[in-house]
Design goal:
alpha/beta; seven-stranded mixed β-sheet; 12 helices; binds flavin-adenine dinucleotide; FAD/NAD(P)-binding domain; four-stranded antiparallel β-sheet
Amino acid sequence: MPNQSIQTDILIVGSGAAGLFAALQIPAEKHVLLITKKEAEQSDSFLAQGGICVLRDLSDYESYYQDTLKAGHYENNPAAVHTMIASSRTIINQLLTLGVPFAQENGTLCYTREGAHSAPRILYHQDQTGKAITSCLLEQAKQRSNITILEHTTLLDLLCQQNCCYGGIVQQADDTIATILAANTILATGGIGGLYSHSTNFAHLTGDSLAIAQRHQVALKNIDYIQIHPTTLYSQKPGRRFLISESVRGEGAVLLNAAGERFTDELQPRDVVTQAIYQQMELDCKPYVHLSLLPIKKETILQHFPTIYQHCLEEGYDITKEPIPIVPAQHYFMGGIQIDLEGRTSMQHLYAVGETACNGVHGANRLASNSLLESLVFAQRAALDILAQNEPSALFWQTAVQLAANVQPNRYLPAQALQQTYQQQVLEAIQLEKGKHQHE
Ligand SMILES: Cc1cc2nc3c(=O)[nH]c(=O)nc-3n(C[C@H](O)[C@H](O)[C@H](O)COP(=O)(O)OP(=O)(O)OC[C@H]3O[C@@H](n4cnc5c(N)ncnc54)[C@H](O)[C@@H]3O)c2cc1C
């Protein structure tokens, strides 16, 4: 019997943009319990630098659609791409209403461009777009009386039976095990960067939901589709790699080899630029190449990229005066728990949204600045799908109570060891999937 049992209407796992936006769709009469592994601000959503895409006007639809498909090697789910693009303006308007301070000039929104985009269609706030969006969502969530946020609370397993989810089993801040009974559960646990030694992600993002889903035969999709970001600041220190946003290349920054010469078109899709860098590193026999921001005006650097400027300065590089060493690193997870366009997984009453989910919108490779947008669009759709359901029956809650009573906390302790097992399990599943794709 676990130490504690909590009941809620909707359990949301993860306090990134996807989890928070889903929570904000739920009206006051329904209770949301949002749990998160560390502090609420520790999500990749806070790290997003470049921006968020939007359909500027209908004349850009075809071009935006084609750019997304081309970057995704035409493996994208066309319906998901259409849904994301068609919903983008509404989502941005909602963010503006919530007070997200996207860059504007004379009252008009500014649009920037990144690799593989054939037109400027990305909204931004300096080089801290993710923080601007997610801190605003978090602030709103904290003000809602129907949303409870529990930090340092980690999902360890699903409370489920016969392919139906009744909530989750969690490790609480004091290390005790509790059960959360929920009519619906949304997994929004982000990416898998914590499984890699070189990644731009927070180290605690280890794909826990994937391991848990796999345990209960919930369908996964494309889990070997992992994006490497071409440009992170080269460092020999351990820990998260600092991203040098693609938008610096959109604004004119160039890649240089050891002889100080350009060696590729910097605005190709990420995977193509990454390959070109790896090849150049081999030719130069160096663990990095250089990125020069010197073609960008100093005032643009200071205004548009203050965080990158400051961070590089702290690492000993003045980007307004000299090129910086950069190296590719794990960045984004295109695969995940298989979902449909409403965020539904293969298990009843279980949803997945954001980076941990996969409806095929990104295909084999994500187009820059599509992920924040995708997270918000499909998080909203999942929440609305939940709201359209009938209330669960008395039998549903009786089963949930029964399942919770049967939980044996010792099976989940020590939780750290269990999490290590999960990590190994996810890495093995990725390898297995990779092998399958190679033989196809
Ligand atoms: C450096 C960087 C720059 C980026 N730049 C951009 C950009 O410019 N534009 C763009 O569109 N995208 C960008 N991205 C990608 C984008 O930020 C993410 O894809 C997106 O924010 C994912 O949101 P999410 O809500 O799914 O996950 P996250 O924001 O990562 O949130 C995941 C949450 O789940 C919690 N969690 C994980 N496991 C558990 C568990 N077992 N129990 C409880 N809680 C758990 C975490 O603590 C966290 O709160 C960038 C990513 C990085 C790393």
